[in-house]
Amino acid sequence: MAEEKKNILTYEGLKKLEDELADLKVNRRREVAQKIKEAREQGDLSENAEYDAAKDEQRDIEARIEEIEKILKNVEVIDEDNLDTETIQFGCTVHFEDMDTQEEFTYKLSGSTESNILEGSISNESPVGAKLVGSKAGQVITVDAPNGKFNYKILDFTRA
Question: What is the pTM of this model?
Answer without folding.
Answer: 0.67
